[in-house]
Amino acid sequence: MRRPTETENLSGIVHEALAAGAAVVGVERLRGGSKKGVYRVHMDGSRSASVIVYSWAEAENFWPAAEVIDAAHPFAPASGLVPFLAAQRRLDRLGVRVPGVLLADDSRRRYPADVAVVEDVAGGTLEAVLSAAPARASDALGELAAMLDVMHQQHSQQYGRVDVLERGDRASGVSCEQLVLERAIRDLAEAAERDPGIGSAAAPLQDRLQELAARVPPRTEHGLIHGELGPDHVLIDASGHPVLIDIEGLLFFDVEWEHVFLQLRFGEQYSALSRPGLDPARLELFMLAMRLSLVAGPLRLLDGDFPNRTLMQEIADHNAKEALALLVR
């Protein structure tokens, strides 16, 4: 049974981040994190009413152990203080709003895991604002589109996570489309074992993946993408501006990979984020690959003790139907 971090475990690290006189009066674990613990710590006697603590403790990672893959692979699990700080620095330099870092520590002396104390952007998620006040969300969507333009216009001949490239390593593979194809084939095999509909259509789905990949033209430049940007990964600050979170997977890659995910997660609001000039062949391949990933991934997560099991099953079921629908278009 997992035990969430308790108040006394966080007091020392928060005191150091703020001031010795700041008293921790409450801690709540925020929902949604599957690779790290995210805690809102309420304070008394500090300029900040609350801060957020990220904990990358092993017990906070709900994903079951997988086969070891190259840590430099663009699709390797993106979690930890190092990729977080690399992404935070890169985006901050670009003027893309991310939470400010108050303290980062990987010494394990103050806290028994890599940990960061960051600004609490307490205005809620863009997802909640889109649901409750669509008119208010329109300005934030426009700002988000401008932020994505800045990111996607950063170019690199190499693809890979920002922290990997910063340390001079080279990402695995020969091209973004080949990496996507290889992952999609693995996801298809895994999903076929668990979902009867995918299992019965495994052969035509694999043929379709190969056919779509063969149509993708070569490319030598890649844009900077978040990698998993849904409206739940955008917070709204007190002034109504968007703030990106869950940024550890920031990488240079085909921007079409980002746009496919944006289409799926923003739905009708995607029109505010859409841009001309995207490669239709990549979009087709990446859409089918993303659907298969969103079947295999949630079902894999259910092998462990992830708490919101109904939601994960619904995501897998929905994307299985959408993947099968792509066969008949």
Give descriptors for this structure:
329 residues, alpha+beta, 2 domains, five-stranded antiparallel sheet, Aminoglycoside 3'-phosphotransferase, Chain: A, domain 2, 11 helices, Phosphorylase Kinase, domain 1
How would you explain this protein's 3D organization?
This protein has 329 residues and is an alpha+beta fold. It has two domains: 7-119, Phosphorylase Kinase, domain 1 (2-Layer Sandwich), CATH 3.30.200; 126-328, Alpha-Beta Complex (Aminoglycoside 3'-phosphotransferase, Chain: A, domain 2). It has helices at 7-17, 81-94, 126-132, 134-152, 162-166, 176-194, 196-200, 202-214, 255-266, 280-301, 309-325; strands spanning 23-29, 37-44, 50-55, 101-105, 115-119, 155-156, 160-161, 222-225, 234-236, 242-244, 251-253. The strands form three sheets. A five-stranded antiparallel sheet has the order 1-2-3-5-4, sandwiched between helices. It starts with 6 loop residues before the first helix and ends with a helix.
The topology string of helices and strands comes to HEEEHEEHHEEHHHHEEEEHHH
User: How would you state the average pLDDT, rounded?
Assistant: 90
Radius of gyration: 20 Å
- Distance linking N and C termini: 46 Å
What is the CATH T-level topology of the largest domain? Aminoglycoside 3'-phosphotransferase, Chain: A, domain 2
CATH class of the largest domain: Alpha Beta
Widest beta sheet: strand line-up: 1-2-3-5-4
- The chain-level structural class is alpha+beta
Architecture per CATH nomenclature, i.e. the level-2 architecture of the largest domain: Alpha-Beta Complex
Q: What is the number of helical segments per DSSP (H or I, 4+ residues)?
A: 11
CATH superfamily of the largest domain: Aminoglycoside phosphotransferase (APH), C-terminal lobe
Number of E-state strands: 11
Low-confidence stretches: none
Major beta sheet, specifics?
A: 5 strands, antiparallel
